[in-house]
Automatic annotation (TrEMBL):
Coiled coil: none annotated. Keywords: Hydrolase, Membrane, Transmembrane, Transmembrane helix. Belongs to the peptidase S54 family. This is Peptidase S54 rhomboid domain-containing protein. Its main location: membrane. PANTHER family: PRESENILIN-ASSOCIATED RHOMBOID-LIKE PROTEIN, MITOCHONDRIAL, RHOMBOID PROTEASE. It comes from the Bacteria. Residues 125-264 form the Peptidase S54 rhomboid domain. It comes from Steroidobacter agaridevorans.
């Protein structure tokens, strides 16, 4: 319908110095079935509608304008917990202590033979090996690599969850990962090293961040960002090397993701409890000590 065909009882609902602004408003109105025209009045462009449609047109244009001005939702960052380095320092000390003890056969004990993970565990039921194997390494390079990545990922997890909860989660995720690895690996295969724990930490970080993102109104691509980043790091860090136990890396990451989702369901204020952090940290140390006591029997 042209302006010449428009009815005489027209009411102004929008005006602007720019014609494109008026074109946008007429397009919005046409989408809801309201006829409108753009005319020039007093040197400005004016959108007019029939008098009986004026109230509906104004309400609809107002709603659209309010939606356009709505702030873009921003994901709430996780609360950062204090003393996050404490767990990483203890991690380094435990790994170094076991490496030294294994290197000198402390107590006249073959640490590698007693603590390594192997595929016969489902038959022998030596399930303590899912923990002891985490503290053993093939050589100095293997140890230093896991110390570097484990310290960083453990620190980041501790910043989000607190040192005690983070390292307890990392240990549990690594135990689950090693347990799954032992079930599927050949009987004669052996595996050792903290890399399963490293990737469990990465899985916890990725899934916990994703869990927080899902509680926001961000687009799905933005919400999936932490998980996608975790998978990329898994592929980059966990798939190389002839002696690499890729299965342990994948199962560790997957187990960590499950724990990260579960931890994401817990209100963040719960992690502020010193008693909870202390209890979780004590459990982690006690579990490692108990596993080695079983191995030394």
């Amino acid at each position: 319908m042209t302006p010449e065909d428009a009815p005489s009882n027209l009411v102004e609902v929008f005006r602007s110095l720019r014609m494109p602004d008026c074109d946008q408003q007429t397009l919005i109105l046409s989408a809801v079935g309201i006829h409108s025209w753009t005319v020039v009045r007093g040197g400005v462009f004016v959108v007019v509608v029939p008098e009986e449609s004026a109230a509906l047109a104004i309400r609809h244009l107002t709603e659209v304008a309010q939606e356009a001005r709505a702030p873009v939702p921003i994901a709430k960052p996780p609360k950062l917990q204090p003393r996050a380095w404490t767990g990483s320092i203890l991690y380094v000390l435990v790994m170094m202590a076991v490496a030294y003890a294994a290197g000198i056969d402390a107590l006249g004990f073959d640490w590698l033979e007693a603590g390594v993970l192997h595929g016969a565990i489902p038959t022998t039921h030596e399930w303590w090996r899912v923990i002891t194997a985490l503290t053993l390494h093939a050589d100095v390079g293997h140890l230093l690599s896991n110390l570097a990545f484990g310290t960083v990922f453990g620190f980041l997890a501790s910043r989000a969850l607190g040192g005690g909860v983070a390292w307890a989660g990392i240990l549990i995720g690594a135990m689950m990962g090693n347990g799954l690895d032992a079930i599927v690996m050949p009987t004669e295969q052996r595996s050792l090293g903290a890399s399963t724990a490293v990737f469990a930490a990465l899985g916890i970080l990725s899934a916990y961040a994703w869990s927080l993102e899902t509680q926001s109104n961000l687009r799905w691509a933005k919400r999936l960002g932490p998980l996608i980043a975790g998978v990329i790091l898994l592929g980059f860090l966990g798939a190389g090397g002839e002696r690499t136990d890729v299965t342990a890396h994948v199962t560790g990451f997957f187990s960590g993701c499950l724990l990260g989702v579960a931890l994401g369901k817990i209100p963040e204020r719960r992690f502020d409890s010193p008693a909870l952090q202390l209890a979780a940290g004590a459990f982690t140390i006690a579990a490692i000590a108990a596993a080695w006591l079983f191995a030394m029997r």
